[in-house]
Amino acid sequence: MLLPETLKIHDQEKFEFHYIYFLPWKDQMVEALQTAGGKVTCLEAKDNIRLVLQYKKIITYCKEHQIDLIHCHLPWAGFVGRLVHKKTEIPVIYTEHNMQERYHIATKSINKLSFNFQSLALGVSQDVTNSINRNIHPEIPVRTLLNGVNTDSFRSSGNSIIRSELRIPHNAIVIGNVAVFRFQKRLVEWLQVINMLQEKNKNIYGIVVGAGPLEEEIKNEWKALGLENIVFFPGLKTDVKPYFEAMDIFMMSSSFEGLPIALLEAMSMECAVVSTDAGGIKEVIRNKEDGLICKVEEWQKLSDLCQTLIDDPEQLKNYKKAARERVLKNFSLKRMVDELEVIYSDFVKK
User: What is the CATH code for 161-330?
Assistant: First the structure.
């Protein structure tokens, strides 16, 4: 949701925004982008190699629409953007959302070889920026631009429709997550933590919003642990706010992260945070101030940290407020968009 949320705040009198995507079945954001004022086009590609081969169509599109600047997200879009830059000299900005060490060797190698064929790289956290500098040693500028959240849009109303729909008792403690079902999210371990908590607390429920390649494995564990009536999987949702509204605790068991937007959204919606200290999470959560965190390899401690909040409702309430205050002061989307527009303006002037 980062792109449509930022588009709502961008100065559309000064900038016109065009969006190109390549995998036609990943069209969940199209309507949201168009509603927010974006122009969206699909240049269909069945795989990453065909994606890169679309560069000629992108060049044609840029000429026809007089594109002044290209901003790419995710590695393969970055590769094709750099190729367009090399052919046209249109400035290209690339936002890196992940640690270089976590990429497949092929992705990592192509990233390193092509990285200098662009104008600027942005890391979504200092950890991500450090990873770029450590692994790539780029000759182009690399800056950190922390992710942000629309704190006006992501605001709790105090009334959860989802709890009623899922028949979760009003006085239950709901622990949630919003994630792509990939190995780094460790959702199997997440379910195991819920299972540990369930042994002590029968009034615990879970919600995991999302989908992804490991869905079958995760749901097999869900069934094996007997959590079918305890943890709910509503699937992939374009509007996640109602689900955050249902959560008391947002729990992440990730092994690595950039700076997860879902974490910031959950905090803005006044969910208390319990998490591993993966990647940029530790740049957001100051332990025992804004939430509770443990080391990545000590993920089983998440159970004890959640139990601390379950046993002390007043502390849980305080961490909910602290989460909201943290994003308001340091991670608002307005701050991020303002910084981004300065960068855009500087490149267009050049």
Answer: 3.40.50.2000
> Under a CB-based contact definition with an 8 Å cutoff, are residues 273 and 253 in contact?
no
**Residue ranges matching CATH 3.40.50.2000 in the chain:** 2-148+332-349, 161-330
Rg (C-alpha) for the chain, rounded Å, is 21
User: Does domain 2-148+332-349 fall into CATH 1.10.3720.10?
Assistant: no
Classify 98 as helix, strand or coil. Answer: coil
pTM of the model: 0.80
Paired residues of 297 in beta bridges: none
Eight-state DSSP code of residue 135: H
For 86, other C-beta atoms within 10 Å of its C-beta total: 14
Contacts of 341 by beta carbon, 8 Å cutoff, 6+ apart: 10, 11, 14, 15
Beta strands in 155-230 (DSSP E): 173-178, 204-209
Q: How do residues 109-147 score in pLDDT, each as one tens digit? A: 999 999 999 999 999 989 999 999 999 999 999 999 998
Q: Tell me if 54 sits within 8 A of 48, measured CB to CB.
A: no
Nearest to 102 by CA among 253, 250, 256, 232: 256
pLDDT score for 80: 95
SS3 273: strand
The two beta strands, 70-73 and 92-96, are parallel
Indicate the Cα dihedral angle 62, 63, 68, 70, nearest 10°.
20
Q: What is the pLDDT of residues 30-80, one digit of tens each?
A: 999 999 999 999 999 988 889 999 999 999 999 999 999 999 998 999 999
